[in-house]
Write a structure and sequence with these properties.
This protein is mainly alpha-helical. It is about 50% helix and about 0% strand. It has a domain of about 70 residues. α2 packs antiparallel against α3 and α3 packs antiparallel against α4. The longest helix has 24 residues.
């Protein structure tokens, strides 16, 4: 019957012998943690210097974009409409910056976009009850 049992680990035998002799118990060995793999420090890579220039299709000529935002602004109060326009300008600025558009081009396009949306908004407001 004792042949069926697996052999005891050596530390358990030593622990039992120490206890019988009235000595301190032998602590169980703990598995040593696996050594951590050394990682190379992560560095931010600088943005590549592009040799090509990015040309942007004029936002003011995107008729569906201009009409959609002018219609949305027409439904809002003047204060909310200005906030909506500022939000859209911020979104467009971030998108163009991500795509690598030059800052002066971004400023020019956003001014053009705001003017086109405001002109479309005036067109929407003037067509509802103007003099015929």
């Amino acid at each position: 019957m004792t042949d069926d049992l697996p052999p005891l680990p050596l530390w358990r035998v030593a622990d039992a012998q120490a206890r019988r002799a009235g000595l301190e118990p032998v602590p169980s060995p703990t598995a040593a943690p696996a050594p951590k793999k050394a990682r190379a420090p992560r560095r931010k890579r600088p943005a590549p210097a592009w040799s090509a220039s990015v040309h942007v299709f004029p936002i003011a000529r995107r008729r569906d974009f201009v009409a959609r935002h002018a219609a949305r602004m027409a439904e809002l109060s003047p204060r909310a409409a200005e906030k909506h326009l500022e939000t859209q300008m911020r979104i467009q600025r971030e998108t163009m910056q991500r795509r690598g558009v030059a800052p002066d081009v971004i400023d020019r396009e956003l001014a053009s976009m705001a003017g086109a949306i405001r002109a479309a908004l005036i067109g929407i407001g003037g067509s509802e009850g103007g003099a015929a």
